[in-house]
Amino acid sequence: MILSTASPTLVPGGALLLIGVAAVLYLLSALPAGGVRHPSAAALFGGFLLHGVLLLIDIGGFGQSEPGARLGFGPVLSMTVWLVIAVYTVESRLVPLPAVRRWLGAAGVLAVVLAGLFPGDPKVLTSPLAPLHFALGVGSYGLFGAAVLHALLLDAAERRMRPAQAGAPRAAPGPAFGMPLLQLERLTFRFVEAGFAVLTATLVLGIVTTVQWRWGDHKAAFSLLAWGVFAALLVGRRLRGWRGRQATRWLYVGAVLLLLAYAGSRFVLEVMLSRGA
């Protein structure tokens, strides 16, 4: 929205104002609340709403002088963060997580700023199934992003349960960040399963609708590698009972590969090589 590395253009003042206000609200939610819950929660929700409007401008192409949607790495990462915050917004109605709110507030600031700095060039979607393919792809990013967030909470909870000294008795599983540890683990892998299903649909749709599918393409290669890692994680969990760090490590590796599949490749093209294609 602010500029594109391939063809620099300034955004309208209204969109620039939205970026600034959303970033300030996210920043307020990221600051230590000092025990006061509601102001920072309201700030995160306000930033979340304005963030959604910015995504309509970026990805939806609303209010832009040039036709097409901006599908650069900035908007894709921005949409991913927005979806993770959406998951948190629902969960926070049941389980307040002020520490997570601060993390997401910081991520929100980074997301709206990056989407403004590196929006990518407008692209006209020629295939009628292209919007569905893109929506599924970004949806898988969001689901795996939520899974990674919960996995980080799971790892942090398990670290807290470890004995402070060798030979000390291990604490029994109990509430972790407001919810039972086993419930947090189940929720983490519900997101993994949902993300895997959506990623599978994305790949199938991409193969079916692409005129010339190239297996050596970097996006296809990283996406298939990520799919293989997530498949191995789910099979290992089902057949071998993978849990804890062993499972979350696989999740982190798959998430990094998936991030490289589209957002990473767009970053290289748009920022490092200054190409919009």
Description:
- With 277 residues, this protein is mostly helical.
- The chain has two domains: 1-124; 125-156 and 178-277.
- Helices cover 69% and strands 3% of the residues.
- It is built from eight helices and four strands, in the order ααβααβαββααα.
- The protein has helices at 13-30, 38-58, 73-91, 98-117, 130-161, 181-209, 218-240, 244-272; strands at 69-70, 122-123, 175-176, 179-180.
- It has a two-stranded antiparallel ribbon.
- β3 (175-176) and β4 form a beta hairpin.
- α3 (73-91) packs antiparallel against α4 (98-117).
- It is globular and about 55 Å long.
- The protein starts with 12 loop residues before the first helix and ends in a 5-residue tail after the last helix.
- 37% of the residues are buried.
- Mean pLDDT is 78; it is low at 1-10.
Overall SS class = mainly alpha
Helix content: 55-70%
Number of strands: 4
In total, the number of domains comes to 2
Give average pLDDT, whole number: 78
Topology (SSEs and partners):
Layout: H1 13-30, H2 38-58, E1 69-70, H3 73-91, H4 98-117, E2 122-123, H5 130-161, E3 175-176, E4 179-180, H6 181-209, H7 218-240, H8 244-272
Antiparallel strand pairs: 1-2, 3-4
Which features does this protein show?
277 residues, mainly alpha, 2 domains, two-stranded antiparallel ribbon, 4 strands, globular
Describe what is shown at a glance.
The protein is an all-alpha fold. 69% of the residues lie in helices and 3% in strands. A hairpin with a 2-residue loop joins strand 3 and strand 4 (179-180).
